[in-house]
Amino acid sequence: MKSASFVIFLTVALVLTAGVLAAILIYFDPFSSQGIVFVLFYTAFFLFLAGFFSLILFLLKRITLSKKPDWQFIPGSVRQGFLLAILGNGILCLQRQQMLAWWSLFVIVGILMVTELFFKFRKSE
User: Fold this and answer.
1) What letter does residue 73 receive in the DSSP assignment?
2) C-alpha–C-alpha distance, residues 3 and 46, integer Å
3) How confident is the model over 13-66, as pLDDT tens digits?
4) Residue ranges with strand state E in the chain
5) Which of 54, 123, 61 is nearest to 83 (CA)?
6) Which of 53, 118, 59, 116 is nearest to 85 (CA)?
7) What sections of the protein cross the membrane (predicted)?
8) CA distance linking residue 119 with residue 110, whole number of Å
9) How far is residue 42 from each of residues 24, 67, 80, measured CA to CA in Å?
10) What are the Cα distances from residue 54, in Å, to 74, 87, 96?
11) What is the pLDDT of residues 79-105, one digit of tens each?
12) What is the pTM of this model?
């Protein structure tokens, strides 16, 4: 995938997921909604965060590491974007359950860091 089409695809996906999030927040009451609304909200929120972080990380890598070809930044940016989206969704879920504490956040960040290190340093076959 070329970098220009990647950026366009992510931008369109961000606009769509932002629209879905806005519709959920406007049309549904969180105090009287069914569980499916929360599933839709968390899914849309995850997709929005993943796309947002992937796009921002890709653009930052493209600006700061301009000597490499742009397409080399796409897999790492998407992976890191998904990990940051997991972190954001995890924080939101824990806060909703009133279980968010500094140590639980520390454990989540540690698990995600180990996951990133595993993918970063695994040997290519």
Assistant:
1) G
2) 23
3) 999 999 999 999 999 998 888 989 999 999 999 999 999 999 999 999 999 987
4) none
5) 54
6) 53
7) 38-60, 100-119
8) 14
9) 10, 37, 19
10) 8, 14, 25
11) 999 999 999 999 999 999 999 898 999
12) 0.87
Sign of the C-alpha dihedral computed for residues 9, 11, 12 and 17 taken in this order: positive
Structure tokens at 92: 């939101």
Mutual orientation of helices 102-121 and 74-96 as an angle, nearest 10°?
A: 160
Query: For the chain, how many structural domains are there in total?
Result: 1
Consecutive H or E run containing 8: helix 3-27
Residue holding tokens 């499916």?
A: 36
User: 């493209």: which residue's tokens?
Assistant: 62
Q: What is the 3-state secondary structure (H, E, C) of 49-112?
A: HHHHHHHHHHHHHHHHCCCCCHHHHHHHHHHHHHHHHHHHHHHHHHHHCCCCCHHHHHHHHHHH
As a whole number of Å, the end-to-end CA separation of the chain is 22
Tokens of 74: 């796409």
Radius of gyration of the chain (CA): 17
What is the residue type of 91? I
Tokens 């965060």 belong to 49
